[in-house]
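user: can you give me the structure for this one chain? tokens are fine.
assistant: on it. calling the predictor now.
[tool input]
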Amino acid sequence: MGSSVGQSTAVPSRWTTLAQATAGGLVTETAFPDRSWWPMAALGVALLVLALRRDSPRWCAVVGLVWGLAFFLPHLRWADEATGPLPWLVLAALQAALLAVGTAAWAWTRRAPRLGGHGPSAVLAFAVLWVATEQLRSGWPFGGFPWGRLAFSQTDGPLLRLAWLGGAPAVSAAVAASGFLLASAWLAVRGRRLGSALVAAGVVVTLPLLSAALPLADEAEAGTLRLAAVQGDVAAAGATDRARAVLDNHVAGTLALGEAVGDGRLDVVLWPENATDIDPRADSAASAAIDAAARSVGAPILVGTNRYTDAGRYNEMLLWQPGRGPVFAYAKQRPAPFGEYIPLRGLVRLFSSEVDRVQVDMLPGTRSAVVPLDSPRLGRPVLLATVICFEVAFDDLVRDAVRDGAELLVIPTNNASFGRTPESTQQLAMSRLRAVEHGRAAVQISTVGVSAVISPDGTIQQQTALFTSDTMLAELPLRTSLTPADRIGDRVVIVVVVLALAGVAAGIRATRARRPARAHGGARSPRLRRTFMGSRRAG
């Protein structure tokens, strides 16, 4: 590939770049559930790349903000359903603003030597910056919000297999690189350089083919686990005690399961997050109901509940043994800000009284998300990763559980507040990616759906509908080996962040080095006349 693309391509007008950015954000959103048109992610990124051809970092930040708003506003519309318009708008705007930081960083980075064209170094630099920006969103502020990473749009496409190799960052990098190359090919065609266009397009086609060739193992390595997952649904309209009604739904589903499969056929029954908001450790009626359900199937139940203290509450998965009661509890490590706890409550209340919807702040747990399940049939404890709800979006929480010995992934969740929006299927896409990333079978179990049983290769074996009562039965492989992504761990992210910072620094240094010549009336160098893909620099 040459050093530049489209030498005669004029720099686009500001209105054109805004139109391209808006279209790019909207197109990218269609790659995610419920549409799941996975090739659209690369196309949406390509439109963003085309929109970023003006030289000014400030304008590139505006372009990134517009692309981000066009993407995040529809992508996060479930937040409006759950919390109202103001939190939804603020969340989308914040994520878009963080993306704008990344696009401004790209405007600086491409000024560095050998990064202004469309060669391999430029493709790598763009992909690295994209992944670094996703990591920024995943960690800041208030613990971060990883929703909308490009990797989560690829669960129906061949690039999903890259998660086995390098986790979500590898998948996102491949999509970002594909978008960059599509933009390069388009501009090469306009510049009548068909050779360069064919090379760029060829790489885009080759990436999925190479990904599809990666080996994914799904055989059992430590036996199999016989389980059931009970989706009880929420309370019927008009229920006077909704929390009790939801518990009764899950008890009823488990009692029916006991009649269908008999005593002792299962190793464990999975209930979702918030299956009982009544703590059975503090309520004798709830305790008796859960124990009766566990006795009916002759198996322990993993129960989603809350534990209240003077300081706040904990969102927990409680392992309930029939006849013995609770024997282990995992508390959610990363509560969702503004959804499960309110940071800076007094300050935020000045802008909206909606903060008082969350009356008791959720506190973070400190244990790894691993629940030891004693299995008499297997004659040993089976370790289950039990990341709760939004925790599945965070790379480190799932990876830490697997590296601590988890043999199967369980994602208990409560999607009742999000109505019939795509939130539950967006979360299911994350669960599928985690299955591939860690080579583990997975079960997503929700109060209202979507629940699913997932093979280690990301294939959905069973799936429930929204707002129904349903039960899933499965015998899933237990696996103990670590994938390359598990072994690499955070190293790839550290390298990405270091490279991104180095690229920005190199671009800033290159800009400063050229300023004295310009200040003394010196002619601009060709590098200052041309920027990314051969466009002329503007103001």
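assistant: here you go. The chain has two domains: 14-216+489-534, 224-331+366-478. The CA atoms of residues 68 and 96 lie 4 Å apart.
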